[in-house]
Amino acid sequence: MTATAGGPGSWSENILEYFLRSNQITAEDGAQITWYHAANHKAQVNEALKSTAHMIEADVLLPSDGSEHGQPIMAHPPERNSDNTLQEWLAEVVKSNKGIKLDFKSLAAVEPSLMLLENVKRHLKRPVWINADILPGPNGHSRVVDAKPFIDTVTSFFPDVTLSLGWTTGWHPEKVNEGYSWTMVKEMEYICNELNQPVTFPVRAALVRQSCSQLLWLLKKSHSLTIWTGKNDNYSTEDLLFIRDHFDKKQVFYDILEPQNHEFKQAIGIKVNL
């Protein structure tokens, strides 16, 4: 894992460097980056583009009814239809200066989506992240996007894109939830060992504290974590502050829901624009 970030305007440019360079943040601190999550439908995209978010995250899949000639659409399962195609989504987002993260739930959607992305590449001089869950994780199911064909397809189109490689996870309020095990992180490290571009690992906030040693080990070669949260997960601001205290601030991004996002930013002295 000797990946290095790319130069200014490349898709693998470190997002902290990009947003610092464009005077949108004031320090190399992942907590300063704000996210708009699941900007799939047209109304959500419009809202995301008007917001102060630095990064827009959205979900890509192929429609279930064969409409649009199998053109990728913007929806998160269990939804299988949308009022927005990826082509339309990209046409709007390229007009902004926001970074993008595209989340794939199936391998079938990847190649047609990358072909559309290739058409607008010259207009996207900013960070682009491509995400998929490629391994089963804590309480996760085995329905993952197959790692090798996913990574091979993405890197054959865009060797300079930032990869976001995660685990499927579950969280149960009535039981003790195990964290990311040594087996899980070592399997991920093995997959990433030959990659030349930056990798971020999306990890579930409620499972990080009990996996601190494993995730610190995984980050030893300069990759990053993106902390995300399930809608009904039970975790505290203290858990987020624990992550803040134990990991390098340059290596952790927080794509978390309200009200915890606001409470966390307040606790660490970062102003939140509502």
UniProtKB/TrEMBL annotation:
InterPro entries: Menorin_dom. GO terms for cellular component: extracellular space. Pfam families: Menorin_N. Residues 29-260 form the Menorin-like domain. Transmembrane segments: none annotated. GO terms for biological process: photoreceptor cell development. Belongs to the menorin family. It comes from the Eukaryota. This is Family with sequence similarity 151 member B.
